């Protein structure tokens, strides 16, 4: 699970890009359809004075555009690599003393939560995502529940056993606050997405 700040930035950037692309598309459709006037529908997108200005200032304009483009490409590569960074080495520190530090791999903790949840027949599959913000452990758990689709029982089993097991794991020597989000879906819906 990515931190909420990263998710928020992703949503804002995608919304801004979407609005710009949608506005450009609407402007092009209005221009070409004649909605902005019949004379404009037949005119070129770039007028002669604008084309002349580009030609007169090309010695500095196009290298500047190229440098800005390279900066944007660099930022895009950096942002994508931040999104795709593997989490296998991410660790959750459980405690620290003079002898050393006690920590657990986040991916291992996710595997343990998933295995613990699927011990029950009604829970066919479980996906867990764990992240840490300050001293709060955020757990997003998605459960795929099979027949007879007793959602209340599945959640009761998870909150009654799986989460207390996690709390015991994270309790010593420095207790951690755990915030959990549980999503329940039908097992058939999950299988449909996998096919």
From TrEMBL:
The keyword Transmembrane applies. Keywords: Membrane, Transmembrane, Transmembrane helix. The keyword Transmembrane helix applies. The chain crosses the membrane at residues 12-30, 60-81. This is Alkaline shock response membrane anchor protein AmaP. It comes from Epidermidibacterium keratini.
């Amino acid at each position: 699970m990515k931190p909420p700040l990263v998710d928020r930035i992703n949503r804002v950037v995608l919304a801004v890009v979407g609005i710009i692309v949608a506005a450009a598309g609407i402007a092009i459709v209005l221009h070409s359809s004649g909605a902005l006037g019949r004379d404009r529908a037949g005119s070129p997108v770039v007028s002669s004075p604008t084309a002349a200005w580009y030609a007169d200032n090309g010695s500095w304009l196009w290298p500047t555009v190229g440098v800005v483009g390279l900066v944007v490409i660099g930022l895009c590569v950096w942002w994508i690599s931040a999104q795709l960074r593997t989490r296998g080495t991410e660790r959750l520190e459980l405690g620290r003393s003079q002898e050393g530090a006690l920590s657990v791999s986040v991916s291992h903790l996710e595997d343990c939560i998933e295995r613990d949840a699927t011990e029950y027949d009604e829970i066919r599959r479980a996906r867990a995502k764990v992240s840490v913000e300050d001293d709060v452990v955020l757990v997003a758990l998605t459960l795929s529940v099979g027949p007879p689709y007793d959602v209340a029982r599945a959640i009761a089993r998870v909150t009654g056993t799986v989460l207390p097991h996690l709390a015991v794991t994270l309790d010593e020597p420095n207790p951690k606050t755990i915030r959990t989000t549980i999503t329940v879906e039908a097992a058939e819906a999950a299988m449909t997405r996998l096919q």
